[in-house]
Amino acid sequence: MWNFLEPVSLDINANKVNRALGHIERPSHLNELNSGVINLLGQLRLYDRPFILHLNVYNFNREIVPGQLQKWKAVAIGADLIDASCFRILYLRVAPTEVQRIGRVVIQKSLAKVLKFIEAKQYDKYLVAVVARGNAENELAMVHAHQKYPTLYSIRYLSYALSDPYIHLADYLLRMCKETEFVDGEWEGKFELSDMDRENIPSTLNGLYEQQIDALKAAVRRKFAVDKKPFNLGKCWEMNMTSFLLKKCLRIAWRANPISMIDLTTAIPFFSRLLGLVILLTAQCSI
Predict the structure, then answer these.
(1) Mean pLDDT score of the chain, rounded to an integer?
(2) pTM (2 decimals)?
(3) Domain boundaries, the chain
(4) CA dist list (Å): 165 to 174, 177, 269
């Protein structure tokens, strides 16, 4: 019945699909699933090594014809190992924006739930940093995370979403992450700003530079506390999931089951299952 997933470039194997669907529809998760939450926190067992936690919020729509339940929003929280060898979505909450609101409080509660689970399973020692866009709707969530963990801005956000004064900060962070190998016992000096860097920093941004540099130092410190191997942050800095996949899934959902997608009581449960299947079947590392 799930052959319509083929446009997502999936290898549609009945056994794999049924196994994934069984996991998504497990009894302990069914109420969450039917309300728009795809809870895959059990995959945390893959992260018994240093990892980055990513928070992203996506707005996406069907982009075909106007009408009810065409516009959706999702808060997605994923994890990536430091070497970017294993990325997984751990938690996704989705809702049609016409009838439900995913705002600052919902985003904060979603991240808080994930962090609570990580701490309960004692994987918090491996959590190097939380990365997100530095916009207003993420503010509550990042303030909450910052109480215990380094919080870093997404480089893509700094590069494209902010005005010119921030571009230098994005360039600096990009250099630190993509061009710098951190070695235990030899990394502190890597953060010294050059004279040119200091000249290019607007006085109004001194505090932001200090905050991000302090967060980077804390992230490096946390990594070496559990793993002494040299590393580079460049590969794991950006979350490997975009609104493109969500839009594609929404178009597929409307094409495969338009009757379900026009009714709120059926649209959220059906779309949640579809997203859960796609997330599991396109995972970048094996369970």
Answers:
(1) 83
(2) 0.88
(3) 39-261
(4) 15, 20, 44
